[in-house]
Amino acid sequence: MKKTFLIGRFLQSHAGAYRHSPRIAGEGTHLSRDVLQKRFSERKTRFRMERIRYALHVQAGLAVALLLIIGAFSLDFRPRGAEPLVLNSQEVVTMQEIVQTRQERKPPPPPRPPVPVEVPNDVILENDDFILGDPLELTMLTPLPLPDAEPEEDIDEPFMFVEHMPEIIGGQAALLASIEYPILAQRAGIEGMVVVEITVEKDGSPANPEVIRSAHEVLDKEAVEAVLEQRFEPGRQRGRAVRVRMAIPVKFRLQNS
Q1: Which tops the pLDDT comparison, 5 or 80?
Q2: Is the overall model pTM greater than 0.70, yes or no?
Q3: 241 band by pLDDT with thresholds 50, 70 and 90
Q4: Averaged pLDDT, 63-70
Q5: Three-class DSSP labels, 202-238
Q6: N or C: where does the chain have the smaller number of CB atoms within 10 Å of the terminal CB?
Q7: How much is the average pLDDT of 1-27?
Q8: What are the CB-based long-range contacts (under 8 Å, 24+) for 205-214?
């Protein structure tokens, strides 16, 4: 009985050592408490060093990634030889409605009649024969001047408003097909509306372009070239083809905006 009690106390005191200690060849079935504590302290120290080394590796990786990102943003990806794009300030253009003027020619006023001169009663008229009953000669009357007829020759000055304004042959689709959005303006994100004023000749050809509303000099040049490539139905006044001054808007807009 006493022997069984001692064996149980021995197994109870050494159960932790047997449960946690590995079986190492040549060292018996278990390790002593001091050896275990020493090995646990070594493992704890090694685990702490591994954590410190891991933290250092993470910090070093973040620093390298940050340096790579900064270096990528500092690189210049612009093509070599490209001219620097200078953005000029946009001009503010005030649009005013022009009232149509009519070219009317008023007839000249009739000549003034002669002012009668009073003759005294005591003056004797000499050598004047009065014959009663003579017919009145209508040929002696001065005919009234007729108003000047409107000249048939063509007027060189272009009209601003006519009965039938000029139209682009093919409509807006033909104008849009002629426009090429400049690459420099696309890269710089430049967009806006350009208004080009032209004179449509009698044969339907555009002439004398003038930019009355500017978005940027690059867009202005492209808009003028696109408008000059169009052909128009000429404007008509009283059934005749005449020169007309008109404005054409050209809108540039990026697809992503």
Answers
A1: 80
A2: no
A3: very high
A4: 91
A5: CCCCEEEEEEEECCCHHHHHHHHHHHHCCCEECEEEC
A6: N
A7: 50
A8: 205/231, 205/232, 206/230, 206/232, 212/93, 212/247, 213/93, 213/95, 213/249, 214/90, 214/91, 214/93
Q: What is the rounded CA–CA span in Å between residue 42 and residue 20?
A: 16
Per-residue model confidence (pLDDT) at position 119: 58
Region 247-254 average pLDDT: 90
The side-by-side arrangement of strands in the sheet containing 192-200 is 206-213, 192-200, 244-252
Which residues, listed in sequence order, are joined to residue 194 by a DSSP beta bridge?
250
Domain 167-252 in CATH 3.30.2420.10? The answer is yes
* pLDDT value of residue 7: 54
Largest CA-CA distance found in the chain, in angstroms, rounded: 196
Q: Does residue 119 or residue 174 have the better pLDDT?
A: 174
- Boundaries of every domain in the chain: 2-71, 167-252
Residues 6+ apart with CB under 8 A from 219: 182, 185, 190, 191, 192, 194, 252
Q: What is the four-CA torsion angle of 224, 226, 227, 230, rounded to 10 degrees?
A: 150
Inter-CA distances, 9 with 4, 13, 36, Å: 9, 6, 21
The length of the chain in residues reads 257
Choose the weakest-confidence range: 66-75, 100-109, 141-150, 191-200.
141-150
In sign, the C-alpha dihedral spanning 73, 77, 81, 84 is negative
256, two tokens:
């992503």
Which run of H or of E encompasses 199?
Answer: strand 192-200
